[in-house]
């Protein structure tokens, strides 16, 4: 249970009622007051408090979503079920034989759903938190039992820093048709600011210094018509247009590859705020443009092979 902390007597009574309502429940936990994520692993800075049931450590559970089981260590990994709709939206966009790269993969919910529900050829997951990657590896074994070898064999799990992994893949000439980039929130990302301060690149969906570093690393591993699902953070007044994020991506791509990106979709991801008046947003983009009669055109003007043509989803 991730809710505001109640007085001890109220919390204990609530936990008892929750446990009594479902015989499958074994423990009820809640974050302490002021709990936040911390460090490169995006894990809780303080352990969850046990309100009822056996206080076990490690606190590992299995989350079920869209027919897929996701193993989560609640005290060591970042995970939110509130992005279930967004995860399904992305999975439904994956076409047959696509190579998919999931950055900041965490416990791998996105990758597992894609592997289980699509005919992609590969889903590579990159996550720096070793506890999260172990959870993902356990989930892959569960996936093998429930969905078969074909689904499980699609998943590649790599425990590494995203920037280091992207650099290694670029050196090998490895490319992907779809990249999920749910980057972590920086200190200024999504801050609501006014006036001259709004020019700060870490505020109001401006991408921030971390954002540009990740974008620079992602671009070399994209196929000519690859789609990137880019996560950013924006203040409430920017919704739903996410104009600063769109501008950041368009201008950054123009500067880095010589052509602006083509925005396919932009919206708030999930219904809950990540901080006061701040929200997680997703902007989908690609570098190539789709010309008349479905002919794909590279930013440099080179025609693309038919096998590289992309099914466009949610294009505005």
Q: What is the strand arrangement across the widest sheet?
A: 9-8-7-10-11-13-12
Strand % is: 25-35%
Low-confidence stretches: 190-206, 297-316
CATH architecture of the largest domain: 3-Layer(aba) Sandwich
Q: What name goes with the CATH superfamily of the largest domain?
A: Vaccinia Virus protein VP39
Keywords: S-adenosyl-L-methionine, Transferase
Domain TRM5/TYW2-like methyltransferase: 61-162
Region (Disordered): 179-205
GO molecular function, one term: tRNA methyltransferase activity
Structural commentary:
The protein has 316 residues and is an alpha/beta fold. It has two domains: 8-35 and 44-53, no CATH class; 60-308, 3-Layer(aba) Sandwich (Rossmann fold). It has eight helices and 15 strands. The strands form five sheets. Strands 9-8-7-10-11-13-12 form a seven-stranded mixed β-sheet, sandwiched between helices. Strands 1-4 form a two-stranded antiparallel sheet. It has a two-stranded antiparallel sheet with strand order 2-3. Helix 2 (84-93) packs across helix 3 and helix 6 packs parallel to helix 7. The protein is globular, with a radius of gyration of 21 Å. It comes from Pelagomonas calceolata. Pfam families: TRM5-TYW2_MTfase (PF02475).
What's the short story on this structure?
The chain has 316 residues and is an alpha/beta fold.
List keywords for this structure.
two-stranded antiparallel sheet, disordered C terminus, globular, single chain, alpha/beta, 29% helix, 316 residues, 15 strands, Rossmann fold
């Amino acid at each position: 249970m991730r809710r505001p902390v109640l007085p001890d007597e109220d919390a204990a009574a609530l936990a008892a009622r929750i446990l009594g309502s479902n015989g499958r429940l074994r423990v009820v936990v809640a974050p302490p007051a002021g709990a936040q994520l911390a460090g490169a692993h995006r894990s809780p800075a303080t352990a969850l408090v046990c309100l009822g049931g056996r206080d076990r450590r490690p606190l590992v559970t299995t989350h079920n979503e869209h027919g897929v089981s996701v193993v989560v260590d609640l005290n060591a990994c970042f995970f939110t079920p509130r992005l279930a709709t967004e995860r399904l939206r992305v999975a439904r966009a994956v076409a047959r034989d696509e190579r998919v790269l999931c950055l900041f993969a965490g416990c791998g919910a996105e990758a597992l759903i894609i592997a289980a529900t699509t005919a992609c050829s590969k889903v590579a997951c990159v996550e720096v938190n070793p506890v999260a990657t172990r959870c993902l590896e356990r989930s892959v074994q569960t996936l093998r039992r429930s969905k078969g070898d074909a689904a499980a064999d699609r998943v590649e799990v790599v425990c590494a820093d995203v920037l280091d992994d992207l650099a290694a893949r670029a050196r090998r000439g490895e490319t992907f048709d779809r990249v999920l980039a749910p980057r972590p929130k920086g200190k200024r990302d999504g801050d609501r600011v006014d006036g001259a301060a709004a020019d700060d690149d870490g505020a109001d969906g401006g991408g921030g210094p971390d954002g540009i570093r990740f974008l620079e690393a992602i671009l070399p591993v994209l196929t000519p018509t690859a789609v990137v699902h880019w996560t950013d953070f924006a203040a409430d007044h920017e919704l739903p247009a996410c104009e600063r994020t769109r501008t950041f991506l368009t201008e950054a791509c123009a500067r880095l590859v010589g052509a602006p990106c083509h925005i396919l979709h932009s919206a708030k991801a999930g219904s809950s705020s990540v901080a006061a008046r701040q929200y997680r947003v997703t902007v989908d983009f690609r570098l190539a443009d789709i010309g008349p009669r479905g002919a794909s055109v590279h930013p440099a003007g080179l025609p693309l092979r038919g096998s590289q043509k992309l099914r466009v989803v949610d294009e505005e």
